[in-house]
Design brief:
Strand content: 25-35%
Largest sheet: 10 strands, mixed
Shape: globular
Number of strands: 22
Oligomer: single chain
Number of helices: 9
Structural class: alpha/beta
Length: 375
């Protein structure tokens, strides 16, 4: 990746990050970043979603066995050189309030800016603001995949919520029921108010959204599109979506890029989620699309989960100069690998993204070792 000049900033954004297998299991943290370290080192600003809590104060009986990790496992973000993290996700309350607050404090001690979770709703809504090369970038983070009780309140620690309302359109006895989703109006109003307040303070404004249809290829929920468009109408310059653990559509709306699903940057997990074993999913919604990949037992998100990407943008004081993505593959050691243009897998990932983005305004043009995104 060519270096930026003095008036431009290179920005990279990965998706979910939080492997739970470390040195004790034969996975040294420094090895996870080996395949992308030169790429990340050449950027000026790097973003990811912090998919785990990192604390020695996990509340007993947590929501998952793996959602809270020892603090030393947070070194994964240093290995990738991450500068900004979203804490707004479905695992940030797995082991309770103190673990959330410990995670936030730990990242700040490591000089990583954070947004999306805090000691109360006001703190969870606070943006992360970073200046590099004279260009100021602001990040706002919200989560739609909220376990019950994990949302922040006026006097309660938690995650910035963008809840979802669901309705059903009945189309007669011979057609399937259509499920329609909308962002909660009050939560959406909070997000839009935050964008309006942040816009005069920054040169570039990025909104991070954790949500969408997990595991299932191609499907983008109605509320995701509604929210992303509303955020751009309010003043956002780019939307970064994550949570599904597979890549989803890339859309260009009013000249602004929307990544509906960045997949993951670096993840492992001890076992599949319970839904993989539920009969309606096992024989229906999931099996109709994909199976778990037996070659990747620690990446139990389905057979599409080894294709991933990193979003790239060039920022200036005047706005976003260009947007692209870097095709990547997760290797057998669960490490992201940056693909070269002459690698057949580069074209495989690009074709997959064309398929996943069908129906959304976009043009993909391979250039060097990345794929340029235009309307």
């Amino acid at each position: 990746m060519p270096p930026s000049n003095g008036n431009e900033m290179v920005f990279l954004a990965g998706g979910d990050c939080g492997p739970v297998h470390g040195p004790d299991e034969g996975y040294p943290l420094e090895r996870y970043a080996e395949g992308v370290r030169p790429v990340f080192a050449s950027a000026d600003l790097r973003f990811a979603n912090c998919e785990r809590q990192y604390s020695a104060n996990a509340a007993p009986g947590g929501r998952t066995s793996h959602g809270c990790q020892p603090p030393q496992m947070a070194g994964i973000f240093t290995e990738f050189g991450i500068d900004v993290l979203s804490l707004a996700n479905n695992h940030m309350y797995d082991a309770g309030e103190q673990a959330l607050l410990d995670t936030r404090a730990l990242m700040l001690r490591h000089r990583i800016a954070v947004s999306g979770a805090g000691k109360n709703l006001a703190e969870a809504r606070e943006p992360a603001i970073v200046t590099r090369k004279g260009i100021t970038v602001g990040f706002i983070s919200y989560c739609s995949a909220l376990p019950k009780g994990s949302e922040a309140g006026p006097d309660k620690a938690g995650v910035a919520p963008l809840r979802v309302l669901t309705e059903y359109e009945h189309r007669g006895p011979h057609a399937g029921v259509r499920v329609i989703t909308h962002p909660d109006p009050q939560d959406l109003r909070m997000l839009l108010d935050d964008i309006t307040a942040l816009r005069p303070r920054v040169d570039i404004l990025i909104v991070s959204l954790h949500g969408g249809v997990i595991w299932v290829p191609r499907v983008v929920a109605d509320y995701q599109v509604m929210t992303a468009h509303a955020a751009i109408d309010a003043g956002a310059d780019m939307i970064l979506g994550h949570h599904a653990h597979i890549t989803k559509a890339i859309e260009v709306y009013k000249g602004k890029a929307i990544f509906h699903g960045l997949c993951h940057l670096c993840m492992t997990k001890p076992e599949p989620g319970a839904a993989w074993h539920e009969v309606p999913w096992k024989h229906g919604a999931l099996r109709n699309h994909q199976d778990l990949d037996p070659a990747y037992p620690l990446l139990p998100y389905g057979s599409h989960a080894t294709r991933t990407l990193v979003a790239k943008a060039i920022f200036t004081k005047d706005g976003v100069k260009s947007v692209s993505f870097l095709p990547m593959i997760i290797d057998a050691q669960y490490r992201p690998q940056s693909l070269k243009r002459d690698d057949p897998r580069f074209d495989e990932v690009t074709r997959y993204m064309e398929w996943a983005s069908e129906g959304f305004a976009h043009t993909f043009t391979p250039q060097h070792n990345e794929v340029k995104v235009t309307e």
